[in-house]
Amino acid sequence: MRAIFAFVIAAAVVATTPASPAPSKDSPASPADKARAAVRENPMVFYLARGEADSCGPGCSEWIAAEGQIIKGTADRMRAFLKRQSGPKRPIYFYSPGGIASDALTMGRLMHDGGFTAGVAETVAQDCEPAECERTKKSGHELRAKFNTFAASCASACVYALVGARVREVAPDAVLGIHAAKTKILSKIPKGIHIPPNFYSDFHKKSNREIARYLVDMGLKPALLEAAEKIPHEDIKVLTRDEIIRYGIDTAASSKAPGYSMKRCWDALPS
């Protein structure tokens, strides 16, 4: 019986916001806090969102939300979701702590081949009870929502998915976090099966070669991977605006592509 192995990037804490203490009985978690916790803990879902005019940029009021952990099979679900869509192509906005790198690379290639625009934003559902919202998200159907980039994060493997899009938008108030990957065995190992001592290091090197090749295919340099590998898996590095542009992540900022509004991004910053 052959074991299945894969890269797993642990859910990352957003470095720009301190970890929230567990809510006490006197101050229970708000619906927004519960929704954000669900994103960190649950598998990624894809659904349609509709906001106010120009909410996701000039002329953009509809988008695809991609939120949650990237687990094994997420890329297949993304492919199926995109095949069901018709009409004008909506941009895809990620809000994710990361997950399995191999699925993230496949997701990036799907967006690249499909000519998608992608960015980082929190989709805040409106006009529905929490349970109803979750059912709608899992169904992939459309929700009324608010579009928020402030402190919205895409970390670890999510960054690799994001860079696959043809056009990439990262608002100045959004967060991209990187760190080194960790190799983890996903399947149960039968008794008597011995894992060679060098398996983890060899697999890590092989996966890094695949990521480096993927970055080049997406028009980036492997410098992004090199920077990530310098950060211990238990830590997180939040990329600066200069780094985001230098690594070629934000194509919209450098090309001034239509639909990208720096004013919209800065308007979201607190005064």
- Mean pLDDT, rounded to whole units? 82
Strand order of the largest sheet: 6-7-2-3-4-5-9
Percentage of residues in helical conformation: 25-40%
Q: Mind telling me which CATH architecture this is?
A: Alpha-Beta Complex
The tally of beta strands, per DSSP, is: 12
Oligomeric grouping of the chains: single chain
Following the backbone from N to C, one meets helices and strands in this order, namely: EHEEHEHEEHEEHEEEHHEHHH
What does the overall shape look like?
globular
Largest sheet: 7 strands, mixed
Number of helices: 10
CATH superfamily: 2-enoyl-CoA Hydratase, Chain A, domain 1
Beta-strand fraction estimate: 15-25%
Instruction: Supply Rg.
Output: 19 Å
CATH class category: Alpha Beta
Could you tell me how far the N terminus lies from the C terminus, measured between alpha carbons in angstroms? 59 Å
Uncertain stretches: 1-24, 255-271
Stated plainly, the CATH topology is called 2-enoyl-CoA Hydratase, Chain A, domain 1
Q: What count of domains describes the coordinates?
A: 1
Which structural class do the helices and strands define?
alpha/beta
